[in-house]
Amino acid sequence: MSRIVLASKKATQEIAQKIARKLLNEKREHAILIALQGELGAGKTTFVQSFLKACGVRRRITSPTFLIMRRYPLVHEYYSDVYHLDLYRITFSRELDVFKLPAIFENRHNIILMEWADKIKDIVPDFAHWIALLHGTHENERVISFQFDI
Hints:
Blueprint: E1 2-6, H1 9-24, E2 32-38, H2 44-55, E3 69-73, E4 81-86, H3 101-106, E5 110-115, E6 129-135, E7 142-146
Subcellular location: Cytoplasm
Protein name: tRNA threonylcarbamoyladenosine biosynthesis protein TsaE
Family: Belongs to the TsaE family.
């Protein structure tokens, strides 16, 4: 497992963009699925914003806390859509049935980033890339952990 101490918000943004660039260069049989977990205010939304920027999304990116899911079309040779989910308000995975997530997960032209993914572990596919973000020992410090190469 990789564990990196991030000294600033800028460092969080840089690691998110590095992970995005690496994953965007891989073709797969299913979607790219980033499952984020961590404490409130640990940098999940900052990570998503920077990841999406690296994907070419130019519009303002806010967390879809009340919408649950927001789709961003992409201009990319392989990937066509990014889905950003904020599951903070979700209690049971069945609350998401209306979004037809299994079809979104299996479409190899999709990228999905889910904040608070640990709330729906029962439906997160095995191919998901789990990323944990935690508060560090200093005010702006964060710790990121993941189990894949970048």
